[in-house]
Amino acid sequence: SVESFGLWHNDNKESELTFYRRFASLLDHIFIGTDIKLCDGETGSSASKAAKDLNAAIFCPGDFAATYPRKIDLLYKCTEAKITIELAANEWKKSDTSQIVAMAQQSKNLRVNASILLNLVHRGVCDTLAMEWIGNSGYLYQLTWDPSEKVFFATLITSMHIPTNVAMIGDAVVLMKALFMLKVNDLILIYSKTQN
Question: Domain residues for 31?
Fold first, then answer.
């Protein structure tokens, strides 16, 4: 609503959690009534832990130190036959995040989503959509597995911005289209994996 602009306007003094919390309310409405679970609160990705365990076994065979999953701000999941399946990892940072930290976060999220997608590939799925946010600005991207080249590649779908005043209301249309695209993609993922 228009009176909510004030919540988003003062973005340089807000924490990462505040940005995520406000955005989560939008996602709750978009994903209501679906089989997609929005798991937040720095939840761990089991796919990233499995990848770390495999790398440790291959490259550090004598190292028996415990490995831990990468912590994720928002993980989309679904359940099939009592097995939880991760669909995508999404990350938020506060608006005054340095470029170095932002790039490290982007790299981490790409690696986590590659681990998640590798699990989905075994179910016949070759791409997933995910988001990255810094303050009120973010983007939606598609991560794809190319089986012939055995590589992952990321493609920008759209940039998004949360409007902070009435003059930016057009940004809300782009944002909502992107979020519904994300919802449809995740529902297709669920359908695809249940058919394989």
Answer: 2-193
